[in-house]
């Protein structure tokens, strides 16, 4: 099955990053997370290059979302270190990681349902600025408002900009979440199952949006739909029981018999 992310083969991207000596976006070093006696993550270590797009796959309970929570600080790591573009952020609260350019979406939509698309995008843009607590109404030249309108176009919702979130289809809500994650010039984004609950048409739209993102923005995507995940990444990491299981290219992972047996139920069409 052909792979395309609009930016050439993964090997070329990796070589450009390595040759330029660019910092890793993420360095995850021996990260663990326990909840009482339950070990959710155990000695997880890997790096993601600046601008790289990575899928983290695995069965339910593999530790994928727990890994995201450790990276963002929602549930900090209980062992190990996390570096973001070379800076140790292991002990920083979530808002400090956001200020450094880390963004995230969640499995379940977290939107202001009574507000419009443009309102949601404006608040997300305003929320990462120093003027976020200002009570002054935005003028037509307000930078955050301009950015909100640009993001509505980026995620193909500009024709619905004045529509309340409560009136949107589920797929449109997921598109809006991506737009909000793009606010404030992010350096790296974590997408947690963005295709969950989408129709086949909405999934194609999602693939196109992810492929069209600026190449300097790297991301990790957790996704159960491999027809989405394997088309929008350079590299794949498989997790199992809170540990790393295997790394590979999308082609290698898709055709790997062990991966098919454990995660794909014997095959994938």
UniProtKB/TrEMBL annotation:
Gene Ontology BP term (one): L-alanine transport
A GO molecular function held by the record: L-phenylalanine transmembrane transporter activity
Keyword Transport: yes
Gene3D superfamilies assigned to the protein according to its UniProt record, in alphabetical order: P-loop containing nucleotide triphosphate hydrolases (3.40.50.300)
This protein's UniProt keywords: ATP-binding, Nucleotide-binding, Transport
Domain of life: Bacteria
Cellular component aspect of the GO annotation: plasma membrane
Residue stretches making up the ABC transporter domain: 26-266
Protein name: ABC transporter ATP-binding protein
Organism the protein comes from: Marivibrio halodurans
């Amino acid at each position: 099955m052909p792979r395309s992310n609009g930016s050439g083969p993964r090997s070329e991207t990796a070589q450009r990053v390595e040759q330029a000596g660019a910092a890793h976006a993420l360095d995850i070093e021996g990260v663990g997370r326990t909840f009482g006696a339950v070990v959710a993550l155990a000695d997880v270590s890997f790096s993601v290059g600046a601008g790289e797009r990575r899928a983290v796959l695995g069965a339910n309970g593999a530790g994928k979302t727990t890994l995201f929570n450790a990276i963002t600080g929602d549930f900090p790591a209980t062992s190990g270190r996390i570096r973001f573009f070379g800076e140790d952020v292991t002990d920083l609260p979530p808002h400090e990681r956001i200020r450094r350019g880390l963004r995230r979406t969640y499995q379940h939509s977290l939107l202001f349902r009574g507000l419009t698309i443009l309102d949601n995008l404006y608040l997300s843009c305003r929320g990462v600025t120093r003027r976020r607590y200002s009570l002054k109404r935005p003028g037509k030249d307000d930078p955050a408002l301009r950015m909100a309108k640009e993001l509505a176009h980026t995620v193909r919702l500009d024709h619905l900009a004045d529509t309340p979130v409560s009136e949107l289809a589920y797929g449109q809500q997921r598109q809006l979440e991506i737009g909000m994650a793009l606010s404030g010039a992010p350096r790296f984004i974590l997408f947690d199952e963005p295709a969950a609950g989408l129709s086949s048409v909405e999934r194609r739209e999602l693939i196109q949006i992810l492929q069209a993102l600026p190449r300097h923005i790297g991301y990790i995507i957790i996704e159960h739909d491999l027809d989405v995940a394997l088309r929008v990444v350079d590299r794949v990491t498989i997790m199992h029981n809170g540990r790393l299981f295997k790394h590979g290219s999308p082609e290698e992972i898709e055709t790997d018999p062990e991966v098919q047996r454990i995660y794909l139920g014997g095959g994938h069409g």
